[in-house]
């Protein structure tokens, strides 16, 4: 039974009394007089005897019981000391009612009261602060943080939610956390898990890329290395993910989906790097471009945390959002400095320093229809819809000093819809505009006729950002901007009767000229550019009852058409990050009932690998980070291509032979071992020659075998390739 505080206090008093009695006994005259006689001893014994009798008489009397009701036990501590007992610690309370506020102003003693007054106005609205403490340094100045104890946990949680990221002024943005959470974050695990080098896959000597394949039945995820001989299976796991998987933008992480949240995997052995708990089932995730943040989406009814933004490295929840009016998804700036969404009255932009609204309010843009960030600058392109007599507008703006500054715009009339598309390098903004000549019907049932299609092309690197207009008379099915270059592909027509037109967007003094390079009449639905441009695959994807399957490989430098290929019921096409290979995929999620497979082609249209996968659900190449070489470095590499090409070709030939090269290496080792045994036996034969002569009467029998060959010949054949040739008698 635990000792009560009052019991320990009584014990201390008793011990102190005994110690005092001992000191008195040591200093008494009786003890100090060593020559006391027997008479004094007899007197002492008589006194002790009388005392014992007195004590015995006292013991016979009844000892008072202070627990009886007659002594007032019905009066509780709460009744006797209500004010004192109201402040006693409660069992349900913990450090969850204490918050730590960091990034407070550091002030001297003269300004401390003023600081307390300002901060109290911020936190008193969340409830009663029972205790407030500002740590001071040796000079009496505040250290820039403080502790606030609220009356209960709910008040503290609301204070953290509302003031974490609160901007007091331009130099002080609060960082607020619960005291209990702070202790958890500062605890160092006894054994740190070594996940290895997260970029180890980039050190592969032959720069071989990786890809992941998922099957639905059974639920398996496989990761391959795209070796030249044939892909090599690196990892295979059952139920690695419950629904889908996603590569991060630079390929560092593989994200898996689970009922309780998201897990990230990485390193050479694909160990778990981080996990993010988001209950309710995550339907969608989005990495920021630099992989610093992750947005998880669980937009189920009644979920107050439908969108959560996480720090990828620490796993810390940075901010959460409920489902609100407008576009629910966030779009990131190119360096992860900002993220924004479309709201009911404009663009709601947040910075990643405080995770609060930039300038503490949204950018008001009436009739906002859509917006897109530039992939290379803090520029935003957006368009506003027309309403009544108000025309539609295309606007280019840049983020500067917490403001959205308009730098270019164009007014458009009779607009139905716009599609914004940035070029990968940010050199161009291409906007497809759908317009009409006649409108009829009511507001909720509007009908358009006399449709017109055109492109508005902004030249971002030119002075004053010149604007070109390209009109297309046919219905536009899709378009694609060259990632690195100046070309635009437009696929127009009706149904399977389509035309593919290649345009060249002028630059410099020719920025106002758009040149049609080539027209290809093929049943194409979509164009897929190689990551670095020049090469493109024109594909006929499965649409409705049309199986599609046509693949046209084009080199846009000379507009030559390379081999045409087929992959019936084609679902999707995806380039590897280097542009050396491209994959065509037929998966089960397209609704096709046939063999599901993927085929890997070279950029020239040659088939290098094909595999059928039971219930193939997804295929994705692992992305690569951007090259560390600048434009000048890439230019030098291309200039010296003739020097390196023969070496790379020789290495490729060795790798392509695959198993034959291994067999040759094995035979070489066997031959070396045979030569060593032969030399050893030849030495022993020479040493024993005199013994043989003595035994054979001086006759040299070794000369009898000198002219006879003891070497045999063995012919070894390797299968290089097989070809089918049609026989014509």
Automatic annotation (TrEMBL):
GO molecular function: RNA binding; translation initiation factor activity; translation initiation factor binding
Subcellular location: Cytoplasm
Annotated segments matching region Disordered: 1-75
One Gene Ontology term from the biological process aspect of the record: formation of cytoplasmic translation initiation complex
Sequence ranges of Acidic residues compositional bias: 51-75
SUBUNIT field: Component of the eukaryotic translation initiation factor 3 (eIF-3) complex.
UniProt name for this protein: Eukaryotic translation initiation factor 3 subunit B
Originating species: Adineta ricciae (Rotifer)
């Amino acid at each position: 039974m635990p000792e009560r505080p009052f019991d320990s206090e009584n014990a201390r008093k008793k011990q102190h009394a005994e110690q005092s009695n001992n000191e008195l006994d040591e200093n008494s005259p009786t003890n100090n007089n060593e020559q006391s006689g027997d008479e004094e001893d007899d007197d002492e014994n008589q006194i002790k005897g009388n005392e014992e009798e007195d004590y015995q008489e006292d013991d016979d009397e009844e000892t008072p019981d202070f627990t009886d009701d007659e002594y007032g036990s019905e009066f509780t501590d709460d009744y006797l000391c209500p004010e004192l007992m109201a402040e006693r610690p409660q069992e349900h309370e913990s450090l969850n009612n204490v918050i730590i506020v960091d990034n407070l102003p550091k002030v001297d003693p003269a300004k401390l009261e003023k600081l307390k007054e300002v901060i109290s106005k911020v936190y008193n609205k969340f409830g009663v602060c029972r205790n407030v403490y500002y740590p001071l340094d040796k000079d009496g100045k505040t250290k820039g943080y403080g502790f606030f104890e609220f009356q209960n946990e709910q008040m503290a949680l609301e204070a953290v939610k509302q003031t974490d990221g609160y901007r007091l002024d331009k130099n002080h943005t609060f960082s607020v956390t619960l005291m209990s959470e702070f202790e958890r974050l500062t605890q160092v695990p006894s054994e740190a898990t070594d996940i290895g080098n997260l970029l180890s896959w980039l050190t592969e000597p032959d720069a071989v890329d990786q890809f992941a394949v998922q099957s639905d039945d059974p639920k398996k995820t496989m990761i391959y290395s795209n070796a030249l001989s044939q892909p090599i299976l690196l990892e295979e796991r059952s139920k690695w993910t419950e629904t889908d998987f996603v590569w991060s933008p630079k390929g560092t992480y593989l994200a898996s989906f689970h009922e309780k949240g998201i897990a990230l995997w990485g390193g050479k052995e694909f160990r778990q790097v981080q996990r993010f708990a988001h209950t309710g089932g995550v339907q969608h995730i989005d990495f920021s471009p630099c992989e610093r943040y992750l947005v998880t989406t669980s937009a189920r009814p009644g979920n107050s945390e439908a969108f959560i933004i996480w720090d990828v490295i620490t796993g810390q929840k940075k901010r959460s959002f409920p489902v609100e009016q407008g576009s629910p998804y966030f779009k990131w700036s190119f360096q992860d400095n900002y993220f924004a969404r479309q709201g009911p009255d404009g663009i709601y932009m947040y910075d990643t320093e405080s995770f609060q609204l930039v300038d503490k309010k949204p950018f008001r843009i009436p009739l906002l229809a859509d917006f897109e960030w530039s992939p290379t600058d803090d520029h935003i392109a957006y368009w506003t819809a027309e309403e009544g007599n108000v025309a539609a507008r295309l606007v280019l703006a840049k983020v500067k000093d917490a403001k959205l500054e308009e730098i270019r715009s164009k007014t458009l009339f009779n607009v139905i819809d716009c599609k914004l598309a940035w070029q990968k390098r940010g050199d161009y903004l291409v906007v497809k505009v759908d317009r009409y000549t006649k409108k009829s019907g009511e507001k909720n049932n509007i009908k358009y006729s006399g449709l017109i299609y055109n492109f508005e092309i902004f030249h971002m690197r030119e002075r004053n950002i010149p604007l070109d207009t390209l009109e297309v008379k046919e219905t536009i099915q899709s378009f694609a901007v060259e990632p690195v270059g100046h070309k635009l592909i437009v696929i127009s027509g009706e149904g399977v009767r389509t035309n593919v037109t290649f345009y060249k967007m002028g630059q410099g003094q020719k920025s106002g000229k758009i040149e049609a390079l080539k027209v290809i009449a093929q049943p194409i639905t979509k164009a897929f550019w190689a990551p670095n441009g020049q090469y493109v695959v024109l594909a006929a994807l499965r649409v409705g009852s049309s199986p599609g399957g046509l693949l046209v490989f084009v080199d846009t430098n000379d507009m030559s058409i390379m081999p045409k290929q087929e992959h019936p019921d084609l679902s999707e096409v995806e380039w590897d990050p280097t542009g050396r290979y491209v994959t065509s995929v037929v998966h089960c999620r397209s609704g096709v009932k046939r063999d599901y497979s993927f085929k890997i082609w070279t950029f020239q249209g040659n088939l290098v690998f094909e595999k059928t996968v039971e219930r193939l659900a997804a295929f994705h190449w692992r992305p690569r980070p951007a090259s560390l070489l600048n434009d000048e470095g890439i230019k030098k590499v291309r200039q010296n291509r003739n020097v390196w090409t023969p070496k790379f070709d020789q290495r490729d030939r060795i790798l392509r032979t695959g198993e034959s090269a291994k067999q040759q290496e094995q035979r070489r080792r066997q031959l070396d071992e045979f030569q060593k045994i032969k030399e050893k036996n030849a030495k022993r034969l020479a040493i024993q020659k005199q013994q043989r002569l003595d035994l054979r009467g001086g006759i040299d029998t070794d000369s009898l075998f000198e002219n006879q060959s003891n070497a045999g010949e063995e012919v070894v054949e390797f299968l290089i390739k097989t070809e089918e040739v049609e026989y014509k008698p």
